[in-house]
Amino acid sequence: MATPYIVTISSEKGGVGKTTLATNLAIYLKALHEDLDVTLLSFDNHFSVDQMFSISRQPVRGDVSSLFTGTNPDELIEIGEYGVQFIPSSNQLHILRRDLEDPSLLIRALAKSSLGGIVIIDTRPDLDIFTQNALFAADRVIVPVKDAPSMDNCRHIYDFFDSHGLSRRPLRILPCLVDGRIHFDGPFRDPYQLLKAYAINRGYRCMEGYIAKSPKVESLNTNPEGKIFPVLTHGRHTEVHVQMTHVARQVYLHSIDIDQRRLDEYCTDMAHAEHEHQGAYEKRRSNLQAGCLVCGQPLVGKEVIGPAGYFAQSSDFRISGYLEDECFNSLVFRYFYGAKRTIEAHDPIWDLFRESAQRSYFVLQRAPHTRNFYQQKLSFYRFDDNGLEVSHKTIELQEFEKRLLTKERSDLFPLLERTLFDKEGRLGDAFLLLRKVGSDLPEEILYDQNFSNFAAVMAKVSTQLP
Ligand SMILES: Nc1ncnc2c1ncn2[C@@H]1O[C@H](COP(=O)(O)OP(=O)(O)O)[C@@H](O)[C@H]1O
Ligand SMILES: [Mg+2]
Predict the structure, then answer these.
(1) pLDDT category, 373, cuts 50, 70, 90?
(2) Gap between the Cα atoms of 117 and 29, Å rounded
(3) Residue with CA closest to ligand 1 atom 10
């Protein structure tokens, strides 16, 4: 399947020539390479692209906003003037903007499409989420710069690349709207030389050449037909024509020279991450203790897990496994809620506890300063969904040491022995974190997202424990 080469035109300054560059670049590329698919789209809310390229008066099937709501780009592409394809612009982006945070939506949409060739993306003069998506997907980012302030603004684009762990390699500055009438004394003779020196000084790389300011080009937007004319057809005698040709050549050459296109790189990364994730789940699954951590009844089979009521993991990550619902509930009532009598199976208190347990995390941990063999104490904590402490209670373990001597094992003992005891049979430094699981799919808690929530609560809990 073809992979498109993606060029994003971006600068936080308005009026630096982004849209003029994006639209004309599309036309020059098509003119230089007739067989090349060139597709243009714009996240600007002006309709210059549509004005310049739209042929049909047919109602459109969708616009650039649909790229962010799951539509395959293939369904949105229109054939336009000069053989350039385009996706219609949208005036609804401001509504969508509020709900979007993910800069990888566009690249994922492009991964679904059969689009090849070169895709050119025009952006708004800020770093909103649509610009971010266009930057994230780009093989080449051209940043038009016309003066020192617009050069200063480039920093934010570089920061975006750095903060997302993206290589700065695609980024190129292009001096635009360079006024040939201005001359300086000294080493930098004109605005072009000066801008180039600024860029190099900041470690920014430049495209070769620049785009001059030309009254003829400016006038292509304003005419009795209400159209926007290309430099190629209406400004052939300007120096901008030569300069656009040069920029288009550089873009084309990079598109065939580049080792790996950004979209391919992204897809490889995703496949890799997916593989790693699966590996992580499998590993968590295979590290589980086979039986209920309280009674030893087998719970973890090759195919299915259950019947399980709780998942437990020690904070040193040595032990993880499941507990039967009954087993844990009765321990809690007997040892920590001080139930004097045996609670009958049909007692509504069970349902009440089960229901509230779904919004809790439980912790078992040796009470502080009780490492001495005969004086061990065990603390039981309850935390809420956000990992904030709700209650706690500490009990003496001495008592069941005595019981042990009389061979009357406490029900708590096997759980502690399996999870928290060290080699000498004493409570170690780790704590045990427990969480209620759904009875239909207890392994759900081992899935990446769920497990990372569980691990996050564990981290938060550990900062609050003594
Ligand atoms: N090379 C140029 N010479 C003269 N005027 C230009 C040139 N390029 C763009 N312009 C004019 O500058 C204004 C801003 O250009 P535009 O491409 O819309 O910038 P942006 O998209 O960055 O806001 C427009 O009026 C456009 O006609
Ligand atoms: Mg614009």
Answers:
(1) low
(2) 10
(3) 218
pLDDT for position 271: 83
Whole-number Å distance between alpha carbons of 33 and 12:
31
Q: Which ligand is nearest to the CA of 214?
A: 1
String of DSSP letters for 392-455:
EEEEESHHHHHHHHTT---THHHHHHHHTB-TTSSB-S--EEEEE--SS-GGGGGSHHHHHHHH
Q: Please give the number of the atom of ligand 1 that sits closest to the Cα of 221.
A: 27
Task: Return the best residue to mutate from 8, 10, 20 for the ligand 1 pocket (most ligand atoms within 8 A of CB).
Answer: 20
Please indicate, yes or no, if residue 276 is contained in any of the structural domains. no
Centre of ligand 1 to C-alpha 445, Å, is: 55
Query: How many structural domains are present in the chain?
Result: 2
Q: Is the pLDDT of residue 281 over 60?
A: yes
- Separation of 89 CA from ligand 2 center, angstroms? 12
Output the average pLDDT for the chain: 90
Which residues have a Cβ under 8 Å from the Cβ of 244 and sit 6 or more positions away? Answer: 24, 25, 28, 211, 231, 232
| Domain span including residue 111 | 5-270
Which tens digits make up the pLDDT trace of 394-407? 988 765 555 455 45
Pair 163, 132 in one domain: yes
Question: What are the pLDDT digits (tens) for 20-74?
Answer: 999 999 999 999 999 999 999 999 988 999 999 999 777 778 999 999 998 999 9
- What CATH number does the domain containing 47 carry? 3.40.50.300
CB 307 within 8 A of CB 324: yes
Percent of the chain with pLDDT over 90: 65
Counting from 1 in the atom list of ligand 1, the atom nearest the Cα of 219 is 27
CA of 458 to the centre of ligand 1 (A): 55
Q: Ligand 1, closest atom to CA 215?
A: 4
Given the CA of residue 220, which atom of ligand 1 is nearest to it? 27
CA distance 199 to 202: 5
Mark whether 239 and 303 lie in a shared domain: no
Q: Does one domain contain both 222 and 292?
A: no
What is the pLDDT averaged over residues 308-330? 93
Ligand nearest to the CA of 221: 1
Q: What is the pLDDT of residues 178-201, one digit of tens each?
A: 998 888 888 888 889 999 999 999
- The pLDDT of residue 399 is 52
Residue ranges around ligand 1 (CB below 6 Å): 14-20, 125, 177, 211, 213-214, 217-218, 221, 240
Do residues 248 and 107 both lie within one domain?
Answer: yes
Overall average pLDDT of the 222-248 stretch: 93
Res 308: pLDDT: 93
- Cα 374 to averaged position of ligand 2 atoms, centre (Å): 77
Inter-CA distances, 164 with 5, 96, 160, Å: 20, 22, 6
Q: Which among 212, 244, 270 is the end of a domain?
A: 270
Classify residue 280: in a domain, yes or no. no
